[in-house]
Amino acid sequence: MRRTLTAATAAALLLTGCSGAGGSSDGVDVVVTTELIKNWTEVVGGDRVNVETIVPPGGDPHSYEPSPNDAAKVAKAELALTNHLLLEDHPLIKLFDANVPEDVPNLSLAENAEPYGAKLMPLVENISLDTVWLGFGVRGETETRSAEIGIRLAEFTGPGQAAMFLTDAFGQPEIYWNSADGLAENDVITLPPNAHTHVNWTFTEPGVYTLTTAATLTDNGAVTDAGTATFTYAVGVNPREVQPGAAVLDSGHVDLTVDLDTGGLIARDDDRGELAPDAVVIDVPTKAIEVIPAEEQFAFLGAAGEEIYQLPQAVLGKHVHGEIDPHLWQDVANAKAYVQVIADALIERDPEGRETYEANRDAYLAELDDLDAEVAAAIASIPEASRQLITTHDAFGYLADAYGMQIAGFVVPNPAAEPSAKQVEALTETIADLQVRAVFVEPNLHARASVLRQVAEDQGVEVCTLHGDALPQDAPTYIDMMRQNASELSRCLGGDQ
């Protein structure tokens, strides 16, 4: 998919560059997804560009839902810039692809940063549950990045009812399948290409269940079959007696994956590799029993207080992502690659501004070199044993890799309910075992932070702030944000800068 996007973008840039359009008389109109991209574009473009962002200041690109007014903004673009690598929610990417004029470059910065020296990293999710962590995935080639893969429950057998849903960051469930109200064509979960998502699975009674999933691909106006498969679930019974010889999926991270290249579904296990649907049994053990919350929005699961078997989504909030971590800019060296991509795109769009763009680019790259050294020095001042990051969002892998920190995570296994005493104890032990001096929250993700704040308070651990996807109000540029982050890390973790 990255190769296809890069080639298409290069062709678009060549076409627009050769046209000599140069933008409007008032400057090139650039529409971008985030404030970070806006900042870089304004620095490079200077007074030759007019930059408009779609995700508002402080907004979360992972969950922002575009409006009709946003479509009108995008339609006026003379250059469109997104981060992509599934950073932005898929409706936002579809908004750009559907409304950017055909002759206008529509550039994904992250996918195109690697040739400019960016280092791309896999998005590693190392969350330890005492059950299997079961989600959905998609892999394979599509014609467009706006394609959608729909996965629906086509057939169901079992002694009770089954549901599959996702709990958003504010605790509201989005129901995709629920056998209690029958099977319908619109009971579908949709994913973009090369994506992965976490979901909750619930079962009302012990026994053996079979869930048959059917997938379709909608791409470039065409809808095609993408495969059907039946998976077996052992709920509260011995999984090794259900299907002797089958691989029992009882731990780790597994995706029921639509393989677009082969037209089928597989179970894709982080540790055990690819497994055929008829060769696996998914274990939903007795220890997975949870109590149905009293809140009205969870009434679809049954009566409040009743017990159900649940495989948890583990990460609170809608969490669709790909295999590559999209938060490249947390390593300043990667931000330099973004700036070079933007500069070349502006030069192709507005050749008469080459001298301005190159001068602004080079001056800013020098500033970023200084920033890189500042961040490195601030983190180096932290005692090595204290360079532990506990956060509410997996946005800091590049920062940890570039500057010598370790990511330590926590999990609230049932986002649909208050965490149990056992779960809070596990988080408490993590903080105590690592002798963590502070934990970090992102202001735009406050809804995910309540448990972390409470445990930190109980343990006498400071709660500090890091900014990942959104610029802080008091640090309205990328350089300001990274300096603030570095200073906060140093201050909170025992450094001297």
UniProtKB/TrEMBL annotation:
<dbReference type="GO" id="GO:0030001">
    <property type="term" value="P:metal ion transport"/>
</dbReference>
<dbReference type="InterPro" id="IPR006128">
    <property type="entry name" value="Lipoprotein_PsaA-like"/>
</dbReference>
<dbReference type="InterPro" id="IPR022434">
    <property type="entry name" value="ABC_LPXTG_lipo_actinobac"/>
</dbReference>
<keyword id="KW-0813">Transport</keyword>
<protein>
    <submittedName>
        <fullName>Anchored repeat ABC transporter, substrate-binding protein</fullName>
    </submittedName>
</protein>
<dbReference type="InterPro" id="IPR022435">
    <property type="entry name" value="Surface-anchored_actinobac"/>
</dbReference>
<comment type="similarity">
    <text>Belongs to the bacterial solute-binding protein 9 family.</text>
</comment>
<dbReference type="GO" id="GO:0030313">
    <property type="term" value="C:cell envelope"/>
</dbReference>
<dbReference type="InterPro" id="IPR050492">
    <property type="entry name" value="Bact_metal-bind_prot9"/>
</dbReference>
<feature type="signal peptide">
    <location>
        <begin position="1"/>
        <end position="21"/>
    </location>
</feature>
<keyword id="KW-0732">Signal</keyword>
<dbReference type="GO" id="GO:0046872">
    <property type="term" value="F:metal ion binding"/>
</dbReference>
<dbReference type="GO" id="GO:0007155">
    <property type="term" value="P:cell adhesion"/>
</dbReference>
<dbReference type="Pfam" id="PF01297">
    <property type="entry name" value="ZnuA"/>
</dbReference>
<dbReference type="InterPro" id="IPR006129">
    <property type="entry name" value="AdhesinB"/>
</dbReference>
<dbReference type="InterPro" id="IPR006127">
    <property type="entry name" value="ZnuA-like"/>
</dbReference>
